[in-house]
Amino acid sequence: MTNKGWIMLAKVKRLFVIKTRFEASLIIYALGLGAIERGMHYLDQYPGYGGYMLMAACTGSVFLGGGKIFDALRYERERAAEAVDKAAESATLSA
Fold first, then answer.
1. Cα separation, 2 vs 4, whole angstroms
2. pLDDT exceeding 90 applies to what percent of the chain?
């Protein structure tokens, strides 16, 4: 692949990286909508207790996944801040 091809591939790859809490919230919202839709189908297919448990499992997985997404964003932000601090510290030591 040529250099231009790699650059274009990197730009496309960047579209699939969650960078802010707002982007994470939009993704979690979309996951929640899908989970509720799937849960409604479960309620139609399995009326009663089984359907409610499957719906709870669908929505619960969104809560767990959303928490992990927010934790990962916080971790990435803290790691970037540490890298900046280390770079600034090494710059002052070398000066």
1. 5
2. 58
Report d(CA 12, CA 39) in Å as an integer. Answer: 33
Asked whether residue 33 carries a pLDDT value surpassing 90, the answer given is yes
Secondary structure class of 19 (helix, strand, coil)? coil
Residue 75 in this model has a pLDDT that exceeds 70: yes
How far apart, in whole angstroms, are the C-alpha atoms of residue 8 and residue 2? Answer: 10
Q: Which two tokens stand for residue 78?
A: 């803290």
* DSSP states along the chain: --HHHHHHHHHHHHTTS--SHHHHHHHHHHHHHHHHHHHHHHHHHSTTHHHHHHHHHHHHHHHHHHHHHHHHHHHHHHHHHHHHHHHHHHHHHH-
pLDDT mean over 37-62: 93
Residues 66/57, Cβ–Cβ less than 8 Å? no
pLDDT attached to residue 1: 65
